[in-house]
Amino acid sequence: MAGAHIVESAGASVSAEPLAEGLAEASFDLYGIGLTVVSEVSSLVDSLARDFAYFAAPSQRGGIRIVAHADDPPWSIIPDKIASMITPNAISYDDHEVRYNDYHRQLLGKYDFAGERGELWSRDLDLLYEITYLMALSRVGELHDRRGIHRIHALGIAIADRGALVLLPEAGGKTTLGLELLKKPAVRILSDDTPLLAKGQLLAFPTRMGIRGKVDGIALEHLRTFKRRNHGPKTLIDLSYFRDRVIDRVSPKVVIVGTRSSGDKSSIARMSRVRAFPALAANLVFGLGLPQVLEYFIRARPSDLLNKGSIASSRLLAALRLVSRTDCYRLVLGRDLAGAADAVESVLARSA
Fold it and tell me: Helix crossing, 337-350 with 174-181: angle to 10°?
């Protein structure tokens, strides 16, 4: 059963505040990175306030500021330039520190990288919400990277003071497994998708959870339905459902490399660190599957290439340190989710 449409009736606001001229604002502090989102569509701001509820904060000075306009895109502001980047999502045009992104004439995005200021225009409210969310994550992610705080595309969980990362491909079942694990009283969660790694510690990054298809056993007040551009509808599970199960930080003890099986049985077995490292590199160093968009992360200029090289080196060093200090396992995830959860719980309990 799904909840209300994402931008039509998003429920009570967590931190949205009314501003002059009918605008609403929500502010967040994501481990020292300020983020403010502004729009005349209060339900869109409310939805983002629910997404980032863990990081709700008073109004932020400086930091990232994004304004989302539910209006026709002003295409005339794009300068007469050769495209600097073309992705399946958008065509990008750069004018010094400012980038203009044309999302197939459905949405226009403008981002000033020097001032960390973004603007978006679209009549499609679902698309406007989606790109606002991804713009925020993309810019927060890079600013965290520069500070040595790195995202990992993984399910992050813990028992007591022992943390574990479960690496599965995009749409590989991380959230479904996470929900199954949360049925166990001892299990805590850092994130179902992007826990952070900083100075050898795992940090919580609990945004909304996303599930394809039907969700049972969760009250409607915690659910929303999100219509995505390219992947169909998804049910979002708010932080309010699992907030008391979030652990703020923990030491990593276990890395689990998962793969899917068409069979019923799930199983887990030790694997060498050497064999586990490629999956960790893909999900930490290269960031495969992270919720971000390249048009707000990659720029084709020498200074940015040097910056990204520095970020890649920092990520690689963090990955090498992580794998050297953890026990590694291979999880075969079959249709028996309860069995998979039991197996993950057992190895994490043994890592004490």
Answer: 70
Order of strands across the sheet that contains 107-112: 17-18, 24-30, 33-39, 64-69, 117-121, 107-112, 98-103, 91-95, 85-86
Q: From 127, 159, 145, select the one nearest 298 (Cα to Cα).
A: 145
CB 34 within 8 A of CB 62: yes
Let me know: does 166 contact 159? Beta carbons within 8 Å.
no
Mean pLDDT, residues 117-130 taken together: 96
Structure token pair of residue 8: 């039509």
Q: Which two three-digit tokens encode residue 175?
A: 């959230």
Rounded Cα–Cα distance for residues 278 and 105 (Å): 39
Answer for the pair 145, 314: CB distance below 8 angstroms, yes or no.
Answer: yes
Longest dimension (CA), the chain: 61
How many other C-beta atoms can be found within 10 angstroms of the C-beta atom of residue 321? 14
CB atoms within 10 A of CB 300: 10
**Which one, of 166, 160, 149, 239, lies nearest residue 202 by Cα?**
149
Residue in this structure with the two tokens 């200074």, named with its chain if needed: 303
Q: Which tokens hold the place of 226? A: 């999100």
Residues facing residue 198 across a β-bridge: 201
- Give the DSSP letter string of 94-105: EETTEEEEEETT
* b/e burial code for range 112-128 (CB count within 10 A of at least 16 → b): ebeebebbbbbebbbbb
294 Cβ contact partners less than 8 Å away, ≥ 6 residues apart: 85, 87, 89
CA distance 175 to 170: 10
Query: What's 70's DSSP letter?
Result: -
Handedness of CA 319, 321, 324, 327 (dihedral sign): negative
Q: How far is CA 277 from the centre of its chain?
A: 22
What is the pTM for the complete model shown?
0.92
> pLDDT digit string (tens) for 32-68?
999 999 999 999 999 999 999 999 999 878 899 999 9
CA 155 to the chain's CA centroid = 11
